Amino acid sequence: MTGETQQDELEDSKMPLIDHLIELRNRLMWSVGAILIAFLLCYAVSDRIYNFLVQPLADLLAGQGRRMIYTGLTEAFFTYVKVAFWAGCFISFPIIASQIWMFVAPGLYKHERKAFLPFLVATPVMFLTGAGIVYYFIFPMAWRFFLGFEFHPGGDANALPIEFEARVGEYLHLVMSLIFAFGIAFQLPVLLTLLVRVGIISTDALASKRRYAIVGAFVAAAILTPPDVISQVSLAVPLIGLYEIAIIIGRRIEKARAAAEAE
Fold it and tell me: Which pTM does this prediction carry?
């Protein structure tokens, strides 16, 4: 594509500043409206969302007569509100992402729009992949480990048992935080391959900074997860693997770009 043709594309999409502001307002209104509608729908089924989020723990404690508790009068109500808002953001994300894309796309060249579109599709897919891994694999393993610290003295009447009795607000905050952290962390290959695609970084630079990336993965995992070794390592190891996958994909992109430039 020639520079003149690219300039013509941008000239065709130019708008006055006030039109940009009106467009931004409309996109924000659509996004906020989508979140609000999704929140109301999720609040109507918040008990089912609650059951889904506590299922990994309920499976481990099945048949033991355990329960969740709340110690503040408003805690249960606001927990349902938080759960509904969290799920509402999940459901409305495709609409929000499409609004962001519709606002940004007119300012891009045609070949840039074509290059960015796969990354826009990959973002929710990778987020759901990270969320699924932590829910179906990390939670059962981590919860089993922590429940192993319960202490039942048996016949020793002088010893005091240690028994887990979870507060519903704390438990759901932990679960939602971990799902969010893993979902965000799994955006790493999307971000890195996008940077390689637009030429901001190279795979040689990524490979040479590998040791710093490993340290950074453990630091990020320590910040995003609760202060325990299991959840930190469970996030850091996939992050390092995703970093390597980004390098492999990036090298293919660079190879294809070099072949196209050689023609």
Answer: 0.77
